[in-house]
Structure formats: C-alpha cells, structure tokens
Amino acid sequence: MPIPAILGAVLPALFQAAPDLIRLFGKGEQSQKNAVVAEKVAEVAKDVTGAINEQEAAEKIANDPQAAQAFREAVAMNFDQWLGMTMKFADMDEASRAKAREFATGYAREPVLGRLTFIELLSLLMMTIAASGGGYVLWGNFPAEIKGAVVTMMFLGGWNGVKEFWFGSSYGSRTKDAPPK
C-alpha cells in the first residue's frame, strides 16, 4: 500500500516542522507500516491546524510559527505511540519469521520412513537414479569418450554436492537453525 500522493508531497514540509519523525520512516518493506504512520501524522497536522486537507495543514505549518509549534508539541505527545506501533510491526514480522523457521526446521527433521527424513529419501533416490544411469553407460556398449564424460560428470556432480552441503548454504542453514547445546 503506497503512501497516497498528497501525503508524499506534504511529508517533507511536515518533517521540516518535526524532524524527529524522520526516524519512524524507512524504505522498501516498510511501505505499509510507513503509510499507517503517515496517515496518523497527517491527521495530527490537520487536527492541530484546523485544516481541511494535508496540503492546507502543511502550508499552515510552514507559514505560521504558532501552528508549527503546536504541530511539534502534538508530535511529541504522539511520538511514543507511533514508535510503539512501529515496534509492534517489527515484533510481528520477527514472530512470523520465527514461526516459519520453526516449521521449516521441524518439517525437515521429521522422519518419513524409519529414521530417514524426506530430504534424505530424496537424496538417496537421486543417487540411485544417477548411479543406475552411470552404470548403464559404463558397462554398456558406448564409446570410450562417452564413458569418460559420464565418469567426469559423476565425479564433478558428487564433489559439488558434497562441497555445497558442507561448505555452502545447507551447512550454514543447518548450523544457524541447530538447537542450542
């Protein structure tokens, strides 16, 4: 939900009147949260100045020192509430990530067949298919160049799989999500 265009045009004037607000606004994923806070700021500006819309409020704040002072005071009174809202949004995001991480790590560790997890079964299946195909080519009636290429590909594929598991993202994810000892 992007910040409405009028708020986008008015916010710089409001920020000049109350610089502490700048700390509440971020970029990127923050846009929905920013929109909520921006709407609250605009409402305070309109209430303090008695303006009909955000543009009129911004003009009054920019041109009238008393309106600017009243706006700063209203911002100071509401600042903790707005900061609390942004902290609540951040806590909700973190709780959502933690829940997803917990589900993913629990799912990945849940045995499917005996003590084997889904990913272990999938790995065994892929290794069996690759070994069967390699064996078919190596002991079949194929030219030496093809047999050499298959051996090379099997070696490189196996090496890369082991390397990526132990030194790549799988290892990093596993150690990050491991339960504390």
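[next item in queue]
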Amino acid sequence: MIKKIKKLIWNVDGIEFPDNPVGEEATFRLTFGTLLIGILTYHQDIWTFEYSNEFRKNGKINPIIDFPDITKEYTSAELWPFFAARIPALNQPYQFKKIARAKANRNDSVALLKIFGHETITNPFRLDPA
C-alpha cells in the first residue's frame, strides 16, 4: 500500500520513479568548480552515491542534505530527489527535440540525466557523465 501511495505522490514533472532502465550502466561525476564532490552510479538496477576522498579531506563545503554522512555509500532503487530535480519538465517541444536527437526514451532517468543533468538552477553543482 505504501508503495502505491508513494508512486502516486512521488512524481517529478510528469516522470514517475523508479523509471530506471533494466541492465543499463552509468557513472556520473558531481563537481563544484574543480572539486570532485562524489560519484553517482547506476549499476545492476541500483543507484549509488559516494563522496570522493578529495571532498572528505576538503572540509570547507558542507555535505549535501540528502547525503549527510560523508563516509557512507548510499544506495537506492530510486533516483534521489537531489538528482531527479535536474530533469526538467518534459512538456515542452524543445525538450522532446533534445530527447529525440539523443535517441533516448523520455522515461529513462539515466538517459535524461545524461541529456539534461549537467547544470541546474537549484544548486551550484555540476553533474557530468564519466
């Protein structure tokens, strides 16, 4: 029952999660300027986020609210809101054109992060495919 309620509530701009492609693999680097904050991976249908050693040693930048423990490896079957928020509303023709040019599925969170996830106005970090 909770999963059904969560599925009804958890929806980012028309994209229901999880919408992860089966069997796909991906790695993304989260950076702030030249500092590597951490690595986001999608492997065997599981999302993983882990801070880099460089970030752990830095001590000048606070951890991301969704990932407070800098020593922990976070795993989830669903893409966290911190990263999902990078995927824009897909109800604009311009977004459809970008997806079509990339030959991607509009419900594929990995492909959409590759297309749209680089920068966002919601935070100063950059997310790039590795």
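[queue empty]
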